[in-house]
Specification:
A 5-stranded antiparallel sheet has the order 10-9-8-11-12. It has a 4-stranded antiparallel sheet with strand order 4-7-5-6. The longest helix is centred in the last third of the chain and has 18 residues. It is built from 11 helices and 12 strands. Strand 8 and strand 9 form a beta hairpin.
Length: about 300
Amino acid sequence: MTRVAVLQGGVSSEREVSLATGAQVVLALRQAGFEVTAIDVGADLGAVIAALQAARPDAVFNALHGRFGEDGCIQGVLDWLGLPYTHSGLRASALAMDKAAAKAAFAAAGLPVAPSRIVSPEELEAADPLPRPFVVKPVNEGSSVGVEIFRDGDNRRADVARGWKYDRRIMAEAYIPGRELTVAVMGDRPLDVTEIDTGHVFYDYDAKYADGGSRHTLPAPVHPAIREQAMDAALRAHQALGCRGVSRADFRYDDTAGEPGQLYILEVNTQPGMTRTSLVPEQAAHVGIGFPELCAWMVREARHG
């Protein structure tokens, strides 16, 4: 029997999300026949390493989200220990988590990206970095943490800048009207396109994780050409970053002038949520892959280095 250690929790702002993912993955892997040890990751890295050494896993399922879990840090530790792990490696994880670097990789691959620039909190406090409406977001956070939208008449910019508590590099990006789409990639296979309708201004943290926070329509009711474009772009983005295993690409689709409209890639999530109702498992189920089977495939694909 293959022994799997599931890393969950962590020390980022997404700790609770990671615990939810980890709990579901543990159950699914046990259903699939694996011997599973759950490890709650805290600030003591030595304790994490000791727990891994005690578990003696054949593979590690990385269910961590956010900083230190999906930015290359834990990947480097697992590489050092010689333990195969799920999802992307150190380089791809670090690249995807850095929104500025990832956007440069997307643009170099010929993928459509929204206009943007990097500013400091002082620059944001002093003036609008882009014509309104625009979005600001931390360069190194996930799950829409810290995202703000500024429209005409909004006077919060200076207050947001003075209270900024994230990476001092702030990405300012043109706001793209329209719809939210997402595509899961499993190895070299884009699964399908989901439309996310939140009732919120954008797909924020609460929309992602609160009960009833969003409604998923699968397959997305979009023009066939846009469906194909989104699936192709998701796979190309996965490859441009050097991802492996499962990833999820998020898009804005501007169809305000009619269909087919203009698609823009926002980011690639190398550690997407893995509860049974999360977007990736939903798409996998839609194409006939059950949750235990999906988790087992990820373990079989585990690598290090």
